[in-house]
Amino acid sequence: MRPLLKPTDRILVVGCGNSPFTAALYDDGFKNVTSIDFSPTVIKAMAARHAEARPELKWLTMDMLDLKFDDESFDVVIDKAAMDALMTDEGSVWDPAQATRDAADAMCRESSRVLVKGGGVFICVSFAQPHFRIKYLEAFGEVGEDRVVERYDWTLQPHTVIGDGGVSGVVHLHGAAEVTL
User: Fold this and answer.
1) CB burial class (10 A; 0-12, 13-18, 19+) of residue 121?
2) Residue 137 falls in which region: left (phi positive, over 0), alpha (psi -120 to 50) or beta
3) pLDDT in tens, 104-143
4) Which residues contact 60 (CB under 8 A, 6 or more apart)?
5) For residue range 73-112, what is the model confidence (pLDDT) as tens digits?
6) According to the 3-state scheme, what is the secondary structure of the chain?
7) Cα–Cα–Cα angle for 6, 66, 102, nearest 5°?
8) pTM for this predicted structure
């Protein structure tokens, strides 16, 4: 993931939970990180845990389906299994429930909205098999030539990464068709 990030990037981590991921970003030199979660208990605990060692981190209670940020507020949006959490009532992975589709669509639309145009990056890290997650990121077939998804104003660039625990799907999405790795 590091090649997609610059130390000056304004990074949003959606659905941060109590993961050490945000702290790891900070410790790797990415100081402008805002993490959100819908649980005020989690946000309060994370803010307290990192206040002294990582004072520049921002922790906010917020719904990733209804972001309270201005348009183009971030260079990078990172979803580390937050979309996976939306899938708990998915039903069939082959024909997902409409409510699940709608929630994933809202998440993608909001993530795209807060990304800078012409170079913003959305990174989705999922424990799902890539073909099950990509259909949400493609707006269920609304993908055009060169994997451009106009609905979200991004270009899909899927990658699969092998981790210590096995295969983990990683999907990189760029907020403009002209952005490439």
Assistant:
1) buried
2) alpha
3) 999 999 999 999 988 888 988 887 877 888 888 888 887 7
4) 34, 35, 36, 43
5) 999 999 988 999 999 888 888 899 999 999 999 999 999 9
6) CHHHCCCCCCEEEECCCCCCHHHHHHHCCCCCEEEEECCHHHHHHHHHHHCCCCCCCEEEECCCCCCCCCCCCECEEEEECHHHHHHHHCECCCCECHHHHHHHHHHHHHHHHHECCCCCEEEEEECCCHHHHHHHHCCCCCCCHHHEECCCCEEEEEEEEEECCEEEEEEEEECCCCCCC
7) 105
8) 0.88
Residue with tokens 């055009």: 144
Name residue, tokens 């309270």.
68
CB 90 within 8 A of CB 100: yes
Note whether 56 and 32 are within 8 A (CB): yes
pLDDT value of position 100? 93
Measured between alpha carbons, how far is 25 from 89 in angstroms, rounded to an integer? Answer: 31
Phi, psi for 178 (deg, rounded to 5):
-80, -10
Q: How many residues does the chain have?
A: 181
